[in-house]
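Protocol step 4 of 5: obtain the predicted structure for the target chain.
Materials: sequence only (see below). No template structures provided, no constraints applied. The aim of this step is simply to have a reference model before the mutagenesis design in step 5. Sequence pasted as it appears in the construct record:
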Amino acid sequence: MDHYTNLGLLHAERSPSNYRYYDISAVSRLEFIENHKKDGMPLSEIKQLLHKKDLEEAEEIDVLELRLKIKGLQQEVSDVLAQLDKSDENNHEYVKKQVSSESMSLIQALLLLLN
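Step 4 output (structure tokens):
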């Protein structure tokens, strides 16, 4: 495993006494590496495959984060609309202050996409 770590195929944390600690994801990465090695694939190609796999997983995480932000935005907009329904002039200012700047940016981006 040290060889794979040195090549950048596996990631490890170092202990104060310089031991390598691998997390649970290292087991599946190691299986991935070993299976492709058995098929005769060179480590340089395996490294490229792992990099591509890491990028795809990062994109999935980004999509999940975006979905969570959209869900939060939907709730915030619902709350704002409820306030506007029973609004007077003072309420309009209160509602404007309650919408976060991030939410306003998301609302503006969504409006641009929809138009």
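Step 4 remarks: Helices lie at 2-6, 25-38, 43-85, 89-98, 101-114. The chain has a mean pLDDT of 76.
Proceed to step 5.
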